[in-house]
Amino acid sequence: MPTGYTVKLMEHGQSFPDFVMGCAARAFGACITMRDDLNETPIPDKFEPTDYHVKAAVEARGKLATLKGMTDDEKIGFGLSKKKAVIKHNQEWLERENRENGRLDEMESQVRVWIPPTKDHQGLKDFMLQQIKISRGDTGYIQKELSDAQAKNPMDYYVAGVSAAARDINYHTEENEKETGRVSGRTEWVQQLRQSI
User: Fold this and answer.
1) Which tops the pLDDT comparison, 184 or 166?
2) pLDDT tens per residue, range 140-153
């Protein structure tokens, strides 16, 4: 029975270079990003880096420039808006965890009073209790996050926004350099493969 790599060879015949390139395009490092492409998709002579990190760095630079260009009142307004959003997120998270933990508590009480029909069923009861225990959310952590968010002043959120934008610039600049290097290596790998066949 043919595989996705051998179907063309088995059904229609295939040259050695075409077979090599077909396998390379679906299964190996340099061409791994093509694994979901159609089998007929040719391997390019040169790979190009994505523009994701370039665009993200540009966006972060714009965000940083906007933040740094704010008046004192705008900085406070930005901070108040962020504070409100973080508090709301943490409150919703806490409500969801409390609701889910309540459902777990209800089920745990039902499981605890259940008497398994035989000794062989005791493992099932123990397993159910274990699953409930490991599923319980830690509301203490969320409460601390909520308390911390409420204690911060608007300028703390502004400073955090500036720091995050600066980090994003560095991160996406570095990742773009890495992507460019990987793409160069992938192109070289394919060129070496083509020369060998």
Assistant:
1) 166
2) 999 999 999 999 99
Domains: count for the chain? 2
- Lookup: tokens for 102: 């309540």
Is residue 161 included in any domain, yes or no? Answer: yes
Closest CA to 50 of 189, 178, 161: 178
Model pTM above 0.85: no
Summarize pLDDT for 153-174 with one digit per residue, the tens: 999 999 999 999 999 999 999 9
Kindly state whether residues 101 and 169 are assigned to the same domain: yes
CA distances for 101 relative to 36, 88, 110, 135, 136, angstroms: 41, 20, 14, 8, 6
91 shares a domain with 23: no
Domain assignment present for residue 1? The answer is: no
The torsion angle over the Cα atoms of residues 74, 76, 79 and 81, rounded to 10 degrees, is -70
Structure tokens at 196: 């060998």
The whole domain housing 80 covers 52-180
Residue 37: per-residue pLDDT = 62
> Domain for residue 78, yes or no?
yes
**Is residue 27, in this structure, part of any structural domain at all?**
yes
Determine the Cα–Cα distance for residues 3 and 11; give it in Å rounded to an integer.
11
Residue type, 52: Y
44 secondary structure, DSSP code: P
Name 18's Cβ contacts closer than 8 Å, sequence gap at least 6.
Answer: 8
